[in-house]
Write the structure tokens for this entry.
Amino acid sequence: MSDPYTQSPMEPARAVTDVRDSRFDGLHEEATAAVGYSANTLRSVRERYHEAYSETLGRWQSLRDELDVVDRAPNESARPSSSTAPVDRAVDAAEAGADDARRRALRGEVEVLTIDLGDHQAELAKLELAERTLERTWLFLERGDATLLTEVGGPATAGDLQMRIVEAQEAERSRLAQEIHDGPAQALSNTIFQVEYIERVIESDPLLARTELRFLRELLRRELGDVRAFITQLRPPLLDQLGLDGAIADTVEHMRTLTGLAITTDLAAPGNQLGDSQQTVALRVTQEALQNVRKHALANSVMVTTKRDDDGWVLEVRDDGRGFDIGAVAARGRRNFGLQFMRERAELIGARFDVRSRPDGGTVVRLAIPTEPAVGGEESR
């Protein structure tokens, strides 16, 4: 008859198993607690950042209100000449000069804060994205969901691909936000100041006012073109209408008309060899590369080519502009949203993206998309 108080041979093994399970449970709880702590800490930082942003926004609004008051004050030309005494006229001129100096100082502060607020808004969006990522990670650990796991170096899972898509979308939104902030938003701010200036001089100097109106009209036309370019970047209907080769040709023609640049094309690799997402990336890289040429290169000529080689389907945009030192730019930590946008687009489809440039040596933007080997004689084209 067995003794119920005597430990059976199986009990030591069960005790060891319990110790092991307890150890792993403890590590899991530690990992979950660490992620939760990080999420809470980041949330606190994000809230303080938001408070600082709100304070800066309040100061910007106060400066705008003060600038409006100064702008509404009568200027020297609008003041009635109540006395012809030289002393009175000198006083009036001094007061008008002080008003103009204050107006210029306020405008400078408003412009600086406008740029700073755009940068802070982009940083706040990053903090919010990082916070949401940590929260999702905590839920992932807490729920014990293994569907997102993949072996190190193994094929990406659907969850990995979804995260890369989200990251690419966020990066593109940030890039567009920065482009709009630096372009149309800043231009609209400048047009407000220009309209206010025209209002002040229209009675005293109609000829100057008409000249300023012509400048204003050209500025608005140019910025309207940029806004339309941003809209085009959001959706490429040209691919459905013209195919990739036709869409690239249309983009080149539009840029040629806009800038007067000598842009030539040699589209030797048929665009229909690529899938839909690959064609979209190829078109976006072409558009962005040409925009960079327009904005920065000071080039005289540009060449857009497609070809097949050992790397697959290859796009190159080559210019003879002023170029830049890639290493120096990277060492200074400068961000180029156009290059970042193109690189992230390429990585999303598994393509290789390279930029070759040197000061006064032009720039080459190269996109290589892996494809199946061409059949027949097509590879030599």
About this structure: The chain is about 65% helix and 10% strand.
